[in-house]
Amino acid sequence: MKLSPVLFAKAIADETRQNIMKLVCCKWLSVSEIVEKVGYSQPTISHHLAILRDAGLVNIREEGKQTFYSLNQENIAVCCGQLMIKFAPENKVTEAIVKVVNA
Amino acid sequence: MKLSPVLFAKAIADETRQNIMKLVCCKWLSVSEIVEKVGYSQPTISHHLAILRDAGLVNIREEGKQTFYSLNQENIAVCCGQLMIKFAPENKVTEAIVKVVNA
DNA sequence: TGATTATATAGAAATTTGTCTATTTGTCAA
DNA sequence: TTGACAAATAGACAAATTTCTATATAATCA
Predict the structure, then answer these.
(1) In B, which residues are within 8 Å of A87 by CB distance?
(2) For residue range A66-80, what is the model confidence (pLDDT) as tens digits?
């Protein structure tokens, strides 16, 4: 799984996708459940989920006819950490993260 | 200055802008210097700089005819922290950040 | 003042993105 | 096996984005 700063940024650079991410942040939801809550068509939701999938930001579980998605918090934390190290290397919070990661 | 997760993500969701960000990460550069290094036209660079400015990601210093830009590492760290708290709240690195910020 | 330089703004063209409808694929139940 | 349901894919279209050239604005210098 490639986690690049640009791919990550593109994936989260859309309000609808951030809404979906918040929905599945701490629980598994099927595509239909996400469709219901977000209010866009099912293909539109599938499209957004595919973008999140390609960026490595969601976990996927297939169960019969249904597919469940949940947020991959680990990868999101890694991407945010990469961004901070790349673009805020002299910041004290970044330095604290580096310490945690290297510990 | 409004620092929203979507505005931040849109601002960094472009390879050229990330290149510019890397260039001015730890030093002040004039627009002409950035143009030279990035290789796009001056208006294109000005446009990208305006997007970074509107997202609160750069510091600006005017000096005579020239305008110098440098990355606002503080705001970038804040935005990344917001993203982590919003989308990776259960991650141990996020928890470490929260501790640092609250300390 | 007039010429030159640095940057920003305006406007246009090409590309990318987000959304939809229609269709396909895959799974389950009768 | 047939029908129904869930999700993915294809294709079209509108809106947004990225880039360019041309022009405007502002500062400096002869």
Answers:
(1) 12, 21-22, 25, 71, 73, 76
(2) 999 999 999 999 999
